[in-house]
Design a protein that fits this description.
Layout (H helix, E strand, L loop, with lengths): L1 H13 L8 H14 L2 H33 L2
Helix pairs in contact: 1-2
């Protein structure tokens, strides 16, 4: 059980934070990810992160569009 808890702690630290996008942060996170996950898991994680970022951008666009529509009816 302790192993699972420590693995969870490590995996949480390896997930990229979308708010931290500096090259150094990205490189550090990728290095952590490489040491913690097997290749197939890395690919799945990167795909999910890309999808999450795309959805976040779309949500921000929709929010901006709605704000503009409310300001200019």
């Amino acid at each position: 059980m302790a192993s699972n808890v420590s693995n969870l702690q490590f995996s949480n630290s390896a997930v990229l934070d979308p708010h931290l996008t500096t090259a150094a942060t990205l490189a550090t996170s990728l290095e952590k990810m490489k040491t913690l996950y097997q290749a197939d898991q890395q690919a799945k994680l990167l795909n999910l992160q890309a999808e999450t970022e795309t959805l976040l951008h779309r949500l921000q666009e929709l929010k901006q569009q709605r704000t503009e529509e409310m300001a200019h009816p």
